[in-house]
Every structure is written in C-alpha cells, then in structure tokens.
Design a protein that fits this description.
Blueprint: E1 2-7, E2 11-18, E3 21-29, H1 36-47, E4 55-60, H2 63-74, E5 81-83, H3 105-118, E6 122-127, E7 130-136, E8 142-149, H4 151-161, H5 181-208, E9 213-217, H6 221-224, E10 233-234, H7 238-249
Parallel strand pairs: 1-4, 4-5, 6-9, 9-10
Antiparallel strand pairs: 1-2, 2-3, 6-7, 7-8
Helix pairs in contact: 1-2, 3-7
Length: about 250
C-alpha cells in the first residue's frame, strides 16, 4: 500500500494505492492538521486497517504543513517518504523553465501522470485556490503555463476590498447580462475565468503551433466546466495518480 498526499492551500487530498489502483481517497481541511499528533491521528483514521504502508509520496504548496505531515508519517512508518521537488525524478524535462525550483509540486505531480498516461501534447487546467494552466509536450518537456486567481480568491477579494460588494455564494445562478449584484459578481467570476482559460490556451496553441489535449481538475471544476466550450477531459485524481507514478520512478 502506498500513501499519497497533495497538500493544497485550503485542503489535503489523501490517496491510498494498492499497486496501480487508487482504492481510497479523502479530502481534509488544511486547518485540521495544526499539530503532528493531530495529523498522525487523522492519517491513521484514513489508513484504517492498511497501516503497514510501503511508503508515502507528498506534494505541497504549504511548506509548514508539509513538515507536520512528514513528521506524522515518520511516526507511523520507517519506510520511504518522498516530498516532491524540482529535483525529484518525475520523468519530465524541466529545462525549458527559467526557475524550475519555483514550480508548484502539485503541478509537477499532475504533469508527471499526464505525460506517463497520454504521451502527447497536453494542457492541464487546475481550478483551485489559484487557477493554473500547465503545458507539457509530447516528449515530456514542461513548457510552462499561466496562473490566475481562483474563483474563491476572486469572490473573497471583491468582498474584502470593496465597501459595498457582498461575498456571494458559488451556487448563485449565472446570467448575462445580470440584473442584480450577486448574479453580476458570480457570472463575471465564472464566465471571466473560463473565458480567460480558453483565451490563454488559444494563445499557447498559436505560439507553439500545436493542438493540446485539455485535462481539467481541481475543487472548482463543478462550477467552471459547464461553461467550458473547448473539448476537455476531467481528471479529478490527477495529482494523487502523479504521486504514485513518481514514487515508483524513485523506488524501482
């Protein structure tokens, strides 16, 4: 059994693999692991009877949380625990990036699985706290991408930084032209995000002179993909699957 953990800005995604199969997964709010002992208890609850893991593989965009998680895992097992960085063997070529050490390891994990699974030019769109766009060539070169504010980040920012605009719910109806403030905000955020993603992908395809296969993932997929007009495939467990691929590459 292999434990995989994707530590994001707002939550952890846990995955348990038996060989190549993801047999269990769970999302945990990030604030619930503010101590090593609390994190250890949460991990043991998730593992259940499968406590004898062969190892763990982690990607994280929150360094302090990663330290807590790694310490908790080390209290559960003495087997290898890999924290993915730009120095980790992933099967990808990062030479096109100016500063590969600044690439989010969640994007790296997702890209590793996409290349391993498809072996064609791919664009991964992750609708999370930030909306990220990552482009991988058919030869496994991580070519770069783009980063936008996520839809939650946008709606919270509008509420915090203006005197009169409310914090709207994501399930507000979408309608354009909007006839009320709440609908105007959520319609602008959702349609603006989707339109921005489509335009960025179009610009990238024009620049590299290739059509890209589009994979979408992230916690906000349910709100954005109904309005995404370009052909796409939803891959919600892509980072967890990528961590499993990376673990095997570094332990075979």
């Amino acid at each position: 059994m292999l434990l995989t953990i994707d530590i994001g800005n707002t939550r952890l995604k846990l995955g348990l693999f038996s060989d190549d199969d993801l047999i269990k997964k769970q999302g945990i709010p990030l604030q619930s692991i503010d101590s090593i002992e609390k994190c250890k208890g949460m991990l043991l609850d998730f593992l259940g009877v499968n406590k004898d893991i062969e190892g763990a593989c982690i990607c994280s965009v929150v360094p302090d949380a990663a330290k807590i998680v790694i310490s908790a895992i080390n209290r559960i097992t003495e087997n290898p625990c890999i924290l993915v960085t730009s120095e980790t063997k992933t099967g990808l070529d990062l030479s096109a990036l100016k500063n590969p050490q600044t690439l989010g390891s969640d994007r790296l994990a997702s890209a590793a699985w996409a290349f391993h699974n498809y072996r064609k030019p791919i664009c991964i769109v992750d609708f999370g706290t930030a909306t990220t766009i990552s482009v991988i060539s058919g030869l496994g070169i991580f070519m770069g991408g783009a980063i936008l504010p996520g839809i939650n980040t946008m709606r919270e920012s509008l509420s915090i930084n203006t005197a009169s605009l409310p914090l709207v719910e994501l399930n507000e109806p979408i309608s354009l032209p909007a006839n009320n403030t709440a609908t105007a905000i959520i319609s602008g955020i959702i349609i603006g995000t989707v339109g921005g993603v489509e335009r960025i992908i179009s610009e990238i395809e024009s620049e590299i002179k290739q059509k890209l296969m589009i994979l979408v993932t992230g916690g906000n997929v349910v709100f954005t993909t109904p309005y995404l007009k370009i052909k796409h495939v939803i891959e919600q467990d892509i980072s967890l699957n990528g961590l499993q691929v990376i673990y095997k590459l570094n332990n075979d």
